[in-house]
Amino acid sequence: MSLQVLSVASEAVPLVKTGGLADVVGALPEALAPHGVTMTTLLPGYPTVTATLGKKPKVLHRWESLLGEPARLLAGQIGAGRNGEQALLVLDAPGLYARDGGPYGDATGRDWGDNWKRFAAFGRAAADVAGGVIKGLAFDLIHAHDWQAGMALAYQRFAPAGPQLPSVITIHNMAFQGHYGADLFPALGLPPQAMAIDGIEYHGGISFLKAGLASASRITTVSPTYAREIREPGFGMGLEGLIRARASDVSGIVNGIDTGVWNPAGDSELKAAYSAKALGKRAANKRALEAEFGLEKGDGPLFIVISRLTWQKGMDVLLEAADHLVGIGARLALLGSGDAALESGFHAAAARHPGRIGVRIGYDEALSHRMLAGGDAILVPSRFEPCGLTQLYGLAYACVPVVSRTGGLADTVIDANLAARQAGVATGVQFDGVRWQTLADALTRTVQLFGDPAAWRSLQRAGMRADFSWSGSGLAYADLYKSLTIAP
Ligand code: ADP
């Protein structure tokens, strides 16, 4: 008998995505199938999600009033990977989710004022499903993701609809916590004891993420280093005390990448496909990329950036170091969007250094593939990075990652220090602390490594050998689920 897991999340590719969370939730069912786990994903019924259900979707359950809103649970399918389509449940509550804009806010990016209700109702519905209110739909474990699913575990614990299931919550980014005022507590329909220090209460208000962290059987985050970092104030964002208190229940499992999508040998987006045995073919991709960004040819490395332009990603520090980058003979192609000041800052840097710095503001997945195939090194100078995906794409594409030593970046890149180079295992460049000087030094070190073709090839090949497919991480999640559901 396979283990039945209910995955509760606010995003999943290919239906709705604002970040890495969606990639993980979308990939998990297929990653777990080979390990005896059948995963069913529960999503809110945003328009892009309900549109996939066909004209007459199967109605599994009706709520007359889910926090005051009429709602239905609909059955669907998600994805079409190697193991076929996977089971999907959709919470259809038009009063909460049927609106234009993003999953959390309107078209201008402003958060919906009733997000507390949208995700409390989502949690209540998840707890009802986990508790067995739907005949013939039974689960062994509930896996909640991020603050939007945190309340599922609080409802399960304080107001269960049936037997309580073992549970896991995964933190994809501690910076988003779902904080609201205590005045909303009566509307949540929880008993008074839930509003306590080991429940959903947080500094006099309510925290949805804390609700999940305090109620889950186990807590995971998306890299072992981030799992340690969030015990500290700078990373725990106010929840470090809870993480320290539950340290023995907290672990890190690195995200995988979809090797069907991110594979330079079979990437139709590229001028020239290539493998580790034929890295010389990358040259054609580099020339094409230089042309696309209006860059001059040069002897130094071509750095690329594919990123949200935010403080978290260290983009302000990169902007300060842009003149140094050009000064040491390197070039930069940047794709990203985010803070207006950073967008205009990079435009200004490109104007100061025509032919040396090229900038594209926007989101363009196809271009990101071409950049990884044509760039020499990918820069990821994040101040914190729960896992990070672009450095993993860099490894797969022989685009050497240059990263700050934090979170998943620390766990997935091996710095080219003397020992690692002698052992032939180095895959990139790491630096400590995101400041002008540390980044400038890392850029200089990268230029020097690039100047030694044998050393550079060795970095590229070792990176391509590293396996960051889902196979290892799928097994790690399956082992965790089994440890919670199988009696010793
Ligand atoms: P985060 O989720 O914090 O933004 P990750 O590295 O985990 O960071 O995931 C970011 C994802 O979004 C990656 O798949 C990356 O390639 C993609 N991405 C980010 N910015 C852009 C962009 N401007 N154009 C195309 N893809 C982008």
Helix percent band = 25-40%
Unreliable spans:
none
CATH homologous superfamily grouping of the largest domain: Glycogen Phosphorylase B
In CATH terms, what is the architecture of the largest domain?
3-Layer(aba) Sandwich
Distance between the termini: 18 Å
Structural classification: alpha/beta
Radius of gyration: 23 Å
Task: Compose a concise summary of this entry.
The chain has 488 residues and is α/β, with parallel strands linked by helices. The protein has helices at residues 20-32, 47-50, 94-97, 115-130, 146-158, 185-188, 208-215, 224-229, 233-236, 240-245, 282-292, 315-327, 340-352, 365-374, 390-396, 407-412, 418-423, 436-450, 453-465, 470-485, and strands at 3-8, 37-44, 59-66, 69-81, 84-92, 141-145, 167-171, 179-180, 201-202, 205-207, 218-221, 250-252, 302-309, 331-338, 357-361, 377-380, 400-404, 429-431.
Model description:
- With 488 residues, this protein is α/β, with parallel strands linked by helices.
- The protein folds into two domains: 269 residues, Glycogen Phosphorylase B (Rossmann fold); 191 residues, Rossmann fold (3-Layer(aba) Sandwich), CATH 3.40.50.2000.
- The chain is 39% helix and 21% strand.
- Helix 5 links the parallel strand 6 and strand 7.
- The model has no long low-confidence stretch (mean pLDDT 96).
- The site of adenosine-5'-diphosphate (ADP) has 16 residues, from strand 13, strand 14 and helix 14.
